[in-house]
Amino acid sequence: MASIETLERNYLNNPDRNILFALLTDFADSEDCRMPQDRDLLSSIEEGLAKLNTAHGVYGVGPFLHFHRERRWHDIDKIWMGWERKRGKLAEFNRLLSGDESTSFMQRIGDKRRLAGISLVVTLDADSELAPGGIARLVGILRHPLNRASISQETGFVTNGYGVLQPRPVQVHGGKESLFERLFYPQVETLDRESVEPSIHQDFFDSGLFFGKGIYDATIFERSLEGRIPENSVLSHDKLEGFHARTAYISDVTILETAPVNYLAHRKRMHRWVRGDYQLLPWLWAQVPLADGTKGPTKLNWYDRWRLLCDLIGPASGISTFLLFVATLLGVLPGDIVIWLIVLAVLSSGGFLCHMIHSLTALLTDQRSFGGARKGLASFFSRCGSSVRTARRDFTVWLLGMVFMADSALVNLDAIIRAIYRMNVSRRLLLEWVTATEATKKLAEARAVQYWQQMIRTPVLSLVLVTLVAILNPVAIPFSWPVFLIWFMSPQLAFWLAKHDTT
Question: Percentage of residues in the chain with pLDDT exceeding 70?
Fold first, then answer.
């Protein structure tokens, strides 16, 4: 199993007799409490961990443990599933560390007494790997006297220090590198301590974002979240957990994550993220939902709520740009159509232009480029070449962003509408989630027809819009037909990007 292989790689990256490696698993959602294949799944995990403990342990006793949860009935969705998915697994595991046996873990591999006294937990997904030596460094940072979390006995607020550390996530490619991965998720060239990335959140406000992969103090984590998150409501729970337990961003410790293999996997992930972000709308206000079904004063400060708001603005801005573009071509906006198209092109290229300015500034201010006559000149030209390659890639990504503008807007709009409808009307499928690993398995070898099936709304919308432009604003036909053509052909281009191997 891939998760067992990842567990072993994390052990090899961080071999230490004081570190235990536990696999927390759930069954797949089902209409019945037990399914015929359940026993085979547990047996394969048990066999795999036994091999690992034999290979890396002493007399079959090794650092690898397994905790598997039984399904619980979800009365709203009418399905058997692991209680609260990943959030539930972490919450129940934290209770297990504190000695509470009232959990839904039905199968355990390893002596539970080995968990006694453990308070620090590193949580990773099935496709994530921590860099060599990363655990020891994270433990050292979290346990440093200046970083130790202090929590108010009265309010439960973390007043000083941090309860969570979020390492820097780095996207890597799982197999053959497609052109899509190379453009949208370029791999970093080095993972040494000099390749750090600054964080405005951490540098100016002493606060980071928790992405669900990092280290946390289980005691602080649970105390700060006690009674704060209602059941069947929160998909992007990691953000709320990070805000309540207070997160620090650690830029010189990396977590390797598998990047989406193609555009279909990418858009599916973005849809999940947007749904999760919009389900956090109630946490923007002074009174927020609590676990007991009531409302109470928020623990989030103004900056935490500002970051939640920014996550909502991002998808909405993409939709707004698309609508302005369509309004321009339909002749709804006053003035010259060419001027409007230029303005929209500049606005949509804001990220590309900012990246260009940043790269140029870094190049001119880096003292390594001027460290001596010959050596400094060689370094300068080398960095110039790297900057040109990066700029070329960024420009290509911007162009592809224009190609996929319509589809991205439709995906974001669909996610927003679903989230709001489910929160306020149906209350169903609020925890709908497909892991990145499962999405990759299903979509890695997608054929062209699958791209057209999943993206069919974009070609249909293109045909409708070009018809409307021909009727309402014929003068815009010379400007609009190339745009609508590339939107119409975007499923085929997405398929081509995934299959164009660059290795």
Answer: 89
Query: Can you tell me the distance from the alpha carbon of 315 to that of 457, in angstroms, rounded to the nearest whole number?
Result: 18
- Where is pLDDT greater, at 113 or 238? 238
Which of 109-113, 131-135, 317-321, 351-355 is predicted with the least confidence, judged by mean pLDDT?
A: 351-355
Q: Which run of H or of E encompasses 216? A: strand 214-217
Phi, psi (deg, nearest 5) at residue 279: -75, -5
pLDDT digits (tens, 9 = 90+) for 331-382: 898 888 888 888 888 777 766 677 667 666 666 665 554 454 445 556 666 6
Give the per-residue pLDDT at 192. 46
- Output the CA angle 123-138-214, nearest 5 degrees: 25
The CA–CA distances, whole Å, from 494 to 61, 309, 397, 449 equal 49, 31, 13, 11
> Could you tell me what percent of the chain has a pLDDT over 90?
65
Neighbours of 166 (CB within 10 A): 27
Q: What share of the chain is helix, strand, coil (3-state, %, to 5)?
A: 55, 15, 30
Question: How many angstroms separate the Cα of 61 from the Cα of each of 57, 258, 471?
Answer: 5, 31, 75
Token pair of 471, please?
């009727």
CA–CA separation, 253 and 14 (whole Å): 13
Going by their DSSP bridges, the two strands 105-109 and 79-81 should be labelled as: unpaired
- Which residue, among 254, 245, 247, 152, has the nearest Cα to 194 in the 3D structure? 254
Strands 247-258 and 128-130: antiparallel
How many angstroms separate the CA atoms of 322 and 330, rounded?
12
Judged by DSSP in three states, 114 sits in helix
- Which pTM does this prediction carry? 0.91
Paired with 255 in beta bridges are 130, 169
